[in-house]
Amino acid sequence: MLTWTADALAAEPAVTGTLEKIRIEHAVTIGYRDASIPLSYYDAQQKPIGYSIDFANLIVERIKSQLKLTELTVRMIPITSQNRISLLQNGTIDFECTSTTNNAERAQQVAFSNSFFAISTRLLVKKSAGIRDFADLDGKTVVVGAGTTSEKILRRLNVDKSMNMKIISAKDHSESFMMLSTGRAKAMMMDDALLAGERAKSPHPDDYEIVGTPQSYEVYGCMLRKNDASMKAVMDAAIADAQRSGLAARIYARWFTQPIPPKQINLDFQMSPRVQALFAHPSDKPAS
User: Fold this and answer.
1) pTM
2) CATH homologous superfamily for 6-118+219-280?
3) pLDDT, tens digit, 9 for 90 and up, residues 101-158
4) Which long-range contacts (CB under 8 A, 24 or more apart) does 280-284 make?
5) pLDDT band with cut points at 50, 70 and 90 for residue 13
6) Quick check: helix, strand or coil at residue 114?
7) Which residue, 48, 63, 66, 91, shows the most beta carbons closer than 10 Å to its own?
8) Cα-flanking dihedrals φ and ψ of residue 81, to 5°?
């Protein structure tokens, strides 16, 4: 067991939980998504990159500084919407920063850092489909990611409004878009920033448009294990400092308003007032 002197205890904040594990192992394990453009996805060398990954890297640097480590091994493990919480809870990953909504239901199982992004849930459709809003989905086939907040919203809407939609649950964003592009689904519901990513990487992005009244406003936070105050403090500080310093705005511009690798596509997705407000006032609260 590691021991501390009285002077060291007085000089350093308590290191417990995940931080203690990282200090002992000199390694941190991060979960990532492999196809959530531009948040967390593969570059041409199959290396995870993206807006969310940049925030994860800021957290890693903060951890390394906090623990005064000269070397810190970073392990990256792919996760999905379905397994991300269980992999965090069982210790396979130490944290994840991808496209996970901070909400009350998930907060019963995990904790969230300060939020680093804000979205609304809308639809991606072919312009030729004639779909302008959710009411136009009556009797149509709609694809949505399995295990996402959008899936829950869509299924509730289907029941509450008696819309007789056929809802397909896809394993990831790429499968969802494939169903839309091949005509198996008439619309794809997801977070608007992710919809912009799927549209941008299409061979014919001008064939698609993002439509519909937002069905929810959500914020993304980095997930960590519950009751892990020292880890959360480090993560919150890394994110808040980036937001207050202007670094977060530069990260946003890099991934949402400029050509991004590997194909140099430009999402042309301007910063929303909700993201601007989040950067001005860092918070770990769910969207209201």
Assistant:
1) 0.90
2) Periplasmic binding protein-like II (3.40.190.10)
3) 999 999 999 999 999 999 999 999 999 999 999 999 999 999 999 999 999 999 999 9
4) 280/243, 282/114, 282/115, 282/236, 282/239, 282/240, 282/243, 282/244, 283/114, 283/115, 284/102, 284/112, 284/113, 284/114, 284/115, 284/221, 284/236
5) low
6) strand
7) 63
8) -60, -35
Placement of tokens 């064939």 in the chain: 207
Q: How many CB atoms lie within 10 A of CB 259?
A: 11
CB 207 within 8 A of CB 129: no
Q: What angle do CA 286, 248, 150 make, to 5 degrees?
A: 35
CATH of 120-217, picked from 3.30.420.200, 3.40.190.10, 3.40.50.720, 1.25.40.620, is 3.40.190.10
